[in-house]
């Protein structure tokens, strides 16, 4: 039997590499996917088409989750259309790529915080009451391995992803008695999305040297991140809440550029 049969999962940032993998992994376990996107309508449509070809059930939802009213409406639309909202995967995120604190503009700081942190707060506020009424919920927030070292050049991104884990831990304590578990996943260098961009910015020699600092000697895959998300949504992790699961090949290096 599939472990998430007929569970309704809202995945933000669904068109991205990790987002697509999370949607596919949850769908393979029987979940009905509400795939969220903001601007990438074409990418969302392609992701949905692929999922449907694989036998997955998926509906598309457009919203700016960094806007509190749109985030509230998004959760309500998903619950209204699909009958409930049981799994919330806060995957949407951006980075400004290696800028020091002094190089980071106020606009850039606010944009990173709005997407990486504020949207999660808004969606959790909207989704948790729906989960409480059902007596069931699972929330997984996608953080980053950067929180483990906070290297120079990661000011806005590192601050947002660190605060995201703090929010995860606090919320997990507040809703544990409601049968709602809240956890985070912190991917390391992943060969998808931001990770691909970070490797592409390096010369081939620097990219190889960076990968050599990872104990496993390679980048991770989006599917490996998705496997961790599925674990935290299923009953295999029934006594796990308030945790941040690192999916990083053992990486604890300071390298960021």
**Proportion of residues in β-strands:** 5-15%
Element order, helices and strands? EHEHEHEHEHEHHHE
What gyration radius follows from the Cα positions, in whole Å? 17 Å
- Give me the count of strands: 7
Summarize the amount of helix as a percent range: 40-55%
Total domain modules = 1
> Looking at the chains present, what oligomeric state does this protein adopt?
single chain
Largest sheet features = 7 strands, parallel
Mean pLDDT: 94
What's the overall geometry?
globular
Task: State the name of the first-level CATH class.
Answer: Alpha Beta
Q: What is the helix tally?
A: 8
Distance linking N and C termini: 45 Å
Side-by-side strand order of the widest sheet = 3-2-1-4-5-6-7
In the CATH hierarchy, the architecture is 3-Layer(aba) Sandwich
Under CATH, the topology can be stated as: Rossmann fold
Unreliable sequence segments: none
Structural class: alpha/beta
CATH superfamily, called what? NAD(P)-binding Rossmann-like Domain
């Amino acid at each position: 039997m599939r472990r998430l049969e007929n569970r309704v999962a809202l995945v933000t940032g669904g068109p991205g590499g990790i987002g697509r993998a999370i949607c596919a992994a949850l769908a393979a376990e029987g979940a009905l996917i509400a795939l969220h996107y903001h601007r990438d309508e074409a990418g969302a449509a392609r992701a949905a088409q692929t999922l449907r070809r694989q036998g997955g059930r998926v509906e598309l939802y457009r919203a700016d989750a960094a806007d509190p009213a749109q985030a509230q409406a998004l959760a309500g639309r998903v619950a209204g259309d699909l009958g409930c909202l049981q799994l919330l995967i806060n995957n949407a995120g951006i980075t400004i790529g290696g800028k020091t604190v002094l190089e980071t503009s106020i606009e850039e700081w606010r944009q990173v915080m709005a997407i990486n942190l504020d949207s999660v707060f808004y969606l959790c506020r909207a989704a948790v009451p729906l989960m409480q009424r059902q007596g069931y919920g699972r929330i997984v927030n996608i953080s980053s391995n950067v929180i483990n070292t906070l290297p120079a050049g990661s000011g806005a991104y590192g601050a947002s992803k660190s605060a995201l884990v703090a929010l995860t831990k606090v919320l997990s304590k507040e809703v544990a008695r409601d049968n709602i578990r809240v956890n985070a996943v912190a991917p390391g260098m992943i060969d998808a999305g931001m990770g691909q961009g970070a490797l592409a910015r390096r010369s081939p020699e620097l990219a190889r040297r960076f990968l050599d600092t990872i104990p496993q000697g390679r980048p991770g895959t989006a599917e490996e991140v998705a496997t961790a998300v599925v674990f935290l949504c299923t009953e295999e992790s029934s006594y796990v809440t308030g945790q941040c699961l690192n999916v990083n090949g053992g990486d604890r290096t300071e390298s960021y550029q």
